[in-house]
Write a sequence for this structure.
């Protein structure tokens, strides 16, 4: 924050897509905030993308619709874009640029923080190993989320990923500890009805008071979407590392973010990479995903669950592909299960949490968690094979043990995977359901669990 | 007589057998019932536990909903009240600034503002605009800034100056209004702190 403010330039050389080229600029800095004033006096925000030869290229967040070369003015504010942060942001709803959207005044800020964030020093990182309970059995039981982890949800258009995102945001908690927990929810390019659903869902469940919402709707300018995850992560970092809270950041939909990036890249006439996305898509995504983690000597943590819808359900598409390189596992939403009416339709065979092993077991969840989870994976995988076989030879051609595996598959989908959107299962309930599935198999088929746990938890039907 | 006693003994035997059968049936029925009852107890207990735990969960959920929305409502009312108070302080402050005495240090302030503006624009070839009240003060300060001119048009502001390069390409707003606007978030924080909110 400075009293000097900035110089306003009135020579606009060119307006191209979301970009404005300002001429005769004496001094401007990379990423500097720019206030564009239209001939009608309307103000829009932007940032400097490039400076040189007396020109500055400004990316206008709210779009350039209605701007003309004559009469438009660009004021270089003399600072980068900042987000006012304080504990007061909890329970608030903001737009994609961090401006209040709930009819309340700006929060009283403790400080103003650069939204681009500081990259975490790898040396300072602490290995994530504490369990977060989402209340969703399939996640807690089979692809456990750990504090400080980045675990994306890969979905497809029209599927129930937003329901799942809202459920996780409502239910997520740190079990057995009195640590403060907060949820930062960033919706990027979602429909108005979805944005309303997220807001109402958190409000009605009482979870809004520990949440911060950033809502960029589909009718907001696409370029704003570049900023939304950054303001959300800035607030998350403040809550985590300054106030010591454990913060879960849910970002939906990262595909809309990548498309906004592609739009800017095309307007800048950069050489396109795969499917027209810029060559630096990987680097850009990493600047967001790598803002998750825990720091040595700091109490809080930032956990990220970015959600992205895969165009044509294609997991090899550049967005899920590059996301998968950076994040620590993935949760894949399956079209087949969705069509069967299963909620949450998570395809466990394509999903995994790479940090799960460190966040479960004695002292975190329960001693038998890892082994029973492996057994359930194994049994469901076998059930899928048996189902395929039954499709060829018919059910009559299956052996008795094959039929048991088919039963396991059905029980898994109907009782374990299927869950109401307002059903918050504890880890104990989840583990009990996993044992119910395992107990459908004869003991000699249980090969991944130690005998002592089988003795303790196996309940033959 | 003999046939009568044989008949009676047969009847007694049948009665005894029937009695034994009935008693055995009753006993087996009792045992079955006892077994069923014994088996039902843990089932009932687990059902009972489930109902209690579901009820507790539901109660927790409702409690969270009620306290959550009450907390948010109370906080929002507090925020609105605070904002109202901050606005009152602000408008009083702006009134005081607008009616401030223009003698004494004010002319030095205007010189500082012009100096700052020429440095930021990087040129002394400038046109200065100000409000009616400050016109004379700015005019007298111009002697120290060669190349600077006072615009004949006045602007609507609390005080201070607005500077434009002579080629019209650059403008720098150094009015008191603009400076207050730039500092507004920090001033709000200071005012809020006086009301005991924030640091």
């Amino acid at each position: 924050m400075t009293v000097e403010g900035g110089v306003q330039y009135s020579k606009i050389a060119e307006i191209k897509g979301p970009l404005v080229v300002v001429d005769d600029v004496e001094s401007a800095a990379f990423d500097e905030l720019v206030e564009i004033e239209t001939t009608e006096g309307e103000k829009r925000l932007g940032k400097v993308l490039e400076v040189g030869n007396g020109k500055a290229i400004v990316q206008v967040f709210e779009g350039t619709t209605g701007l003309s070369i004559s009469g438009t003015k660009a004021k270089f504010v003399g600072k980068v874009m900042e987000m006012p942060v304080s504990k007061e942001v909890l329970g608030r709803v903001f737009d994609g640029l961090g401006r209040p959207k709930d009819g309340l005044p700006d929060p009283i800020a403790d400080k103003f923080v650069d939204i681009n964030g500081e990259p975490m020093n790898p040396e300072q990182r602490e290995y994530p190993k504490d369990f977060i309970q989402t209340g969703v059995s399939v996640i807690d039981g089979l692809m456990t989320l750990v504090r400080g982890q980045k675990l994306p949800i890969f979905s497809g258009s029209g599927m129930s990923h937003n329901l799942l995102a809202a459920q996780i945001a409502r239910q997520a908690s740190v079990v057995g500890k009195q640590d403060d927990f907060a949820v930062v929810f960033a919706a990027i390019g979602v429909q108005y009805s979805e944005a309303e659903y997220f807001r109402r869902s958190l409000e009605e469940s009482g979870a809004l008071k520990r949440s911060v919402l950033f809502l960029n709707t589909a009718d907001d300018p696409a370029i704003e979407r570049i900023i939304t995850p950054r303001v959300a992560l800035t607030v998350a970092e403040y809550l985590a590392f300054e106030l010591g809270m454990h913060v879960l950041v849910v970002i939906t939909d990262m595909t809309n973010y990548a498309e906004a990036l592609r739009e800017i890249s095309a307007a800048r006439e950069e050489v396109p990479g795969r499917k027209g996305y810029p060559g630096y898509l990987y680097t850009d995504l990493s600047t967001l995903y790598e803002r998750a983690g825990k720091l040595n000597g700091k109490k809080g943590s930032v956990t990220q669950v970015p959600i992205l819808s895969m165009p044509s359900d294609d997991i090899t598409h550049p967005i899920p592909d590059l996301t998968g390189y950076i994040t620590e596992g993935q949760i894949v939403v399956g079209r087949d299960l969705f069509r069967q009416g299963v909620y949450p339709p998570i395809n466990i065979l394509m999903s995994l949490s790479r940090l799960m092993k460190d966040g479960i077991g004695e002292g975190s969840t329960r001693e038998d968690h890892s082994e029973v989870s492996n057994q359930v994976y194994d049994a469901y995988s076998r059930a899928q094979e048996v189902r395929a076989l039954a499709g060829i030879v018919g059910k009559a051609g299956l052996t008795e043990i094959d039929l048991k595996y088919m039963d396991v598959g059905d029980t898994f989908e109907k009782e374990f995977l299927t869950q109401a959107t307002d059903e918050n299962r504890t880890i104990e309930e989840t583990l009990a359901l996993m044992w119910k599935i395992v107990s459908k198999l004869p003991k000699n088929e249980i090969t991944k669990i130690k005998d002592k746990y089988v003795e303790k938890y196996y309940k033959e039907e | 007589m003999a046939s009568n006693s044989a008949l009676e003994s047969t009847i007694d035997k049948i009665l005894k057998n029937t009695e034994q059968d009935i008693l055995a049936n009753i006993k087996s029925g009792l045992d079955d019932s006892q077994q069923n009852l014994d088996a039902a107890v843990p089932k009932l207990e687990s059902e009972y536990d489930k109902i209690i735990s579901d009820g507790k969960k539901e109660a927790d959920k409702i409690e969270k909903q009620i306290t959550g929305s009450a907390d948010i409502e109370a906080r929002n009312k507090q925020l609105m009240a605070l904002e109202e108070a901050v606005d009152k302080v602000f408008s009083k402050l702006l009134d005081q600034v607008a009616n401030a005495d223009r003698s004494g240090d004010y002319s030095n302030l205007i010189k500082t503002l012009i100096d700052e503006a020429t440095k930021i624009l990087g040129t002394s070839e400038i046109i200065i605009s100000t409000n009616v009240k400050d016109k004379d003060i700015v005019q007298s300060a111009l002697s120290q800034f060669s190349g600077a001119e006072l615009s004949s048009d006045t602007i609507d502001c609390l005080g201070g100056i607005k500077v434009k390069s002579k080629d019209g390409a650059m403008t720098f707003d150094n009015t008191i209004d603009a400076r207050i606007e730039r500092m507004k978030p920090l001033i709000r924080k200071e005012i809020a702190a006086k009301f005991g909110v924030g640091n």
About this structure: The first helix of chain A runs from residue 137 to 142. The radius of gyration of chain A is 25 Å. Chain A touches chain B through 36 residues (CB under 8 Å). Chain A has a mean pLDDT of 91.
